[in-house]
## 1
Amino acid sequence: MRTVAAALTLLVLVSLPLSAQGRPDLRIDTTEKFSAAAIPPYTRNHDEVYEYIDRNLDRHLEALQRWVRQPSISAQDVGIDAMAEMLRRDLLAIGFAEAELAPTSGHPGVFGYYDAGAAKTLIVYLMYDVQPVEPDEWRVDPFAGSIVDHELGRVLMARGATNQKGPERAFLNAVEAIHAVRGRLPVNLLVVAEGEEELGSPHYSEVIDRYESRLRRADGVLFPFNSQDSAGEVTMSLGVKGIVYFEMEAVGNEKGGPQRAEVHGSLKALVDSPVWRLVQALATLTSPDGNTIAVPGYYDPIRPPTREEQRLLSAALDDWTGREERMKSVLGVAEWIDGIGDAEALLRLLYDTTLNIDGIWGGYSGEGTKTILPHKATAKVDSRLVPDQTPEGAMALIRSHLDANGFEDVAIRLMAGYPPAQTSVEAALVEAAIS
């Protein structure tokens, strides 16, 4: 489909008086709605580019499959260097004048420059890493790049097919097609890729610092993403929640619990348990159902929405009901928190800060029994942040809360974090994209 309607969403948070549960009271105070149709449509013709894509569709599909078949699991350092080099070579092959690896303290970044001699320059953010896989949860080999029959139709099913190597390589396919037909693009491109997005981008700033003077001259940034659904409707995200990701750990110490290694479980009659210590500390962070953050001051920095943000949200509500049920089906979820739905569900999805346990472990979890009292327990926790929360502020509040509740011995280690970000719908690049 050449022309699509744009349904716009924005990740912001509206904070009015606190509800009885302690979370912000989320509401919209305007009936005004943003209309993408009010922006004049783009009128130039690119049929020859589309024809080139159609003629080369098999080769473009092969490029997608080549990317998803290359493992690039950042958490396990599997295939990372090979994927970075594949990206570098592909940039050169499709017409980039520069393409190089950008070493960091972690996984390498990739930098590329396409010189079109144009007046405008865009930064293209890419991530080439993917999450680990659980093979038992897959219908196919996650790195086989299989084309399969699915309830959505004939699809490419693989790790990274949607998040994010598939849409990124599709974008590069389009760049290749324009370059091949026209000889050059209408804009210069600066590609700045990382291999640690799934880790929280801990070293991406090193890539940015390396090319900062060149990046500052750009006119905008875009992130290629699967944004069009099977009905042809496009969703454009004008923002992203921030995150703070940390570990919490309880270990035996001078106040109690085994300090060097696990001991026999029968000794619980005499010995404190670091596992229970961690569980109790985690339990203080939220309400008993886990859905309201109990850390004092956690909701306080969150600002109310601007008029522009409320107009965007008011428009988004028109399309939410049908999407909501599809989301439940895809996720395999019967009900949302507290049985909410409709406008309240959309408000929480876009505007609520979170505190989530990603994983928790300690002691024996294998087959059969092993009666031990572990000397250490650890949990990975993330919090999604909204304006005007910051990773530093969130960590400070959590640390203060644990200390105030007698959990000074429970360690918290920051692993990754970045603040929320957003772009005005009136920005020139956004209006061009909608057009």
Note: Residues 307-331 form the longest helix (25 residues).
## 2
Amino acid sequence: MITAVARKLVLLLVQKGKDDLLPVIVTHLDRHSGAKALLPETVRNMIASVKIMTGKKAPDLIWKAPVLTQTKKTHQDIILKTGALNTDPTILLFYQGECQLCEDALIDLANAYDQLSANHVRVIAVSGDDSEKGFRKRISKKT
């Protein structure tokens, strides 16, 4: 029952932008490791985000090759060492192409980019799309 409730509730909270409520669920799930293990991988990934909350230093990020950026395709692993970043605020957005909330967030960021840039806010968007076509569709989209 705990697994079924967590599966539905985590998805709903993330969709509604209420990630700040996830720590309560994670604390409860940590007491029931069997229930946590039964969660789908997507839900486990969502609750893992509790460790990367707003305003806290993110862990180093590693992308396995091949990695496609706006300018090239590389076959070397890319490591973004957060300790080496400057102290300017950074918005780090992970998105999936078929996610409407993600699409809305990308549009909002694109519309606010000039203002963010003027305030020295770095924007990093990481695509979860599993095809080059999905990635190209997102980076070429005009707002």
Note: The chain is about 45% helix and 15% strand.
